Amino acid sequence: MSFKNNFTIKDLNLSHNIIYAPLAEYTDFAFRRLVRNYHTSLMYCEMVKMQALVREKTTKLLKYTKDMKPLGAQLCGADPSIAFDSAKKLEDSGFDTIDLNCGCPVHKVVKDGSGAALLKEPKLISQILSEMVKAVKIPVTIKIRLGWDDSSIVATDIVKIAIDAGCSAITIHGRTRKQGYSGKSDWNYITECKKVAQDNILVFANGDLYSAEDVKNVFELTKCDGVMIARGMLFSPWLSNDIESYYTNSIKPSFSRKEAILKYISYLLDEKKENAIFDLRRISGWFFRGIENIKNLRISINAATNIDQAIKLIEGFDFDERDNSAPCSL
Ligand SMILES: Cc1cc2nc3c(=O)[nH]c(=O)nc-3n(C[C@H](O)[C@H](O)[C@H](O)COP(=O)(O)O)c2cc1C
Questions:
Q1: What is the residue extent of each domain of the chain?
Q2: DSSP 139-169
């Protein structure tokens, strides 16, 4: 497969097969609003803990407006007894797809057996997915790393488990938990996963996709059905537009980085003025990465004591808007 317009995951019709990943503390409501100015296909909210979801009435992590759809939610947890209710709650809240997180490497997540720790318990993955699939009609998907470490690569086993559980898609990040974000996403394992999957489950490749060329390379190598992009969209929320124009030989749309960051700030201000400066600092760490002459602006934003100062700094900065494709890889 390669880039494809009109793509379906189970009954969910999507404009194309480039999807945007969940990113805890980044793909929040304001950022999702920003992304929707550019990206037409599926995107995800930040992961939510199953326990919190079944306990609380609402969670701000999952806030959305109808124009943000198609939108996926992601569950994080290791307790099959609450997987059914968690999934049902998400479907009832209007989400288009539900993913199970089997990749988060951070200590506070893996310490209770969730996230990437599930890769050490394939039977548990099977039980959780089966409960989720039983609970909902929308597509259930799973996102994994290759395994816990080099000596316990389980990706192809999890593909089989996901198929048996009735999952519609699996996303594979080609790193182990032990690697964190070091080294490179090893796409060769994704090739192996696609061979095992055949046409029984959709395979999305993930890891180190920052440009249309990266996406072309991963499609050619792995024969995957689609790709999931995470950090690349933090540099360039319009990356899927670049990929689409690359594949359709159309003129690359030009987007203004200054306009985008000011729009993002306006979305933050619709939510909460007090914290906006902190959110801006966090996002601009990625959004300004690799941009020429940006260092002083970043330093000034970090020193700014309120959002109005930051807005003035950004308005006064001369962005080079000639080519706003992903400015760099990591
Ligand atoms: C700050 C940050 C937050 C993340 N949060 C999540 C998350 O909530 N759920 C998840 O499945 N993966 C999460 N990831 C992993 C990404 O979705 C993705 O698998 C990984 O970054 C590799 O893809 P990339 O090279 O396109 O960034 C996170 C990654 C980063 C850097």
A1: 5-248, 257-316
A2: -EEEEEESBSSGGGB-HHHHHHHHHHHT-SE
pLDDT tens per residue, range 113-156: 999 999 999 999 999 999 999 999 999 999 999 999 999 999 99
Is 208 close to ligand 1, i.e. is its CB under 6 Å away?
A: yes
Assess whether the C-beta atom of 214 lies below 6 angstroms from ligand 1.
no
For the domain spanning 5-248, the CATH number is: 3.20.20.70
Atom of ligand 1 nearest to the CA of 173: 19
Residue nearest to atom 2 of ligand 1 (CA): 23
Whose alpha carbon is nearest atom 21 of ligand 1?
A: 230
Instruction: Identify the sign of the CA torsion 120, 123, 126, 128.
Output: negative
Q: What is the separation of C-alpha 60 from the centre of its chain, rounded to a whole number of angstroms?
A: 18
Cα-to-centroid distance, 21 and ligand 1 (Å):
7
How far is the CA of 84 from the CAs of 50, 74, 79, 81, 129, in angstroms? 10, 14, 10, 7, 9
CA of 329 to the centre of ligand 1 (A): 15
